[in-house]
Queue: 2 jobs
Job 1
Amino acid sequence: MPHKGKLLVITGAGLSAESGISTFRGANGLWEDHKIEAICHARSWRSNFDTVHRFYNARRTQLATAKPNAGHEALVEWEARYESILFTQNVDNLLEVAGARKPVHLHGFLPDMRCTACDNVWTIGARAWDQTKECCPACGSRKDVKPFIVFFGEEAPLYRALIEALAIMTDDDVLLIIGTSGVVLPILDIAEKTPGLSILNNLHSEPAIPEDLFDHVFIEPVTSAVDKMDRVLRETLLPRKGAA
């Protein structure tokens, strides 16, 4: 019987892959053609300033034409139906475009820029940043402006929110993992410590994620798995008061 409980969701790049947003790892992932050290590392981004901005400009301008898929839309529906919190490793804005209220972007947000000199963060949307002319609107620095992305070697401050949310999960709550390799976030540890029901949806089996730790596993595109996941959630969780 469905019971009162919360839904905690963690998504990765696999969620947006069917919307045309390239994944970073896996077959044809962006890291196959680019060195992490050159474009996404705290120690080296300044010395590769133009390359970094060209790379993220290409990713950002993709957002102008990318559309949310059925996975994004289902997450918005579940966010409205259940007491829930949505964490994403994705830096795209497709959850927001689909109507998500408060997704927590653990690794940054591509439509935003950040000045490391004054810590100003501002939105430029789905356009390219002209690193040869544009400056921080707060302090005027140009050389200190970077995409609002958590680079390797940088602290990810919103991990604290994820750790705290996981720590208070109970037997009544549900963990839902969608589209992640389990390499950056320790999905194995998270699944092992989850007290309630757990669901995994990945396009492919991932070596870093033992599937036997999960109660329900759907190895298929998120767009074909949403109805199955919806059925599990309806059988497990009561909707929040006033939700359909």
Job 2
Amino acid sequence: PLNFSDIVSETKKDKVLQKVVTYLKMGWPAEVEQDLVPYKRRADELHVEREVVLWGYRVVIPTKMRTTVLNELHAYHMGICKVKALARSYVWWPDIDGGIERTAKSCEPCNKTKDNPPKSTLIPWEWPAKPWQRIHIDYLGPLANRYYLILVDSHSKWLEAFETKSMSSLTTISILRQVFARFGLPDILVSDNYSAFEAEQFQHFLKKNGIKFKSGAPYNPKTNGG
């Protein structure tokens, strides 16, 4: 497993990240090498904390450690969408999405199962007319004694992941309140039949906020217009 001291050590050895650190302190030149372009585009959002480069709250992983991070993210074979959601909550580097996709495509267990015929016909959801009209939620885990609430806007495909110690209806409501405070209330919320989503307390929360509830399969791009 990765630890903070390893990231600090590798950041100091990473030639690209050391240039990023220097430019963040001294100012960016008008022209930079190609491998620095993604960092310059995010210059206003990058900062250095305890000798590690951060993009917002995400840790910028040094080059040498990226394969390890990709393998750890993929270890539970969650699928590309969920891995991207999880990664976006904690780490970043240029082309991280491409790395996640390549790791999944080279995974033998995933390749064996991805083309299995579905047990039943998939019925696509109707494409939403606007962002945040319909959202899908699903719990992932446990991973290292933690769970993750994955939320997807079915129009924009925007994903968010929230780490939590519990999958209770109270925890779910608390997280959704934070999300709705930022993005507003959706028209429809879709989830699987997990007990927390079916609980009276959770259903009352949705009804009180005028949100229609629909149960179905956990988020799947093939059935969500993706």
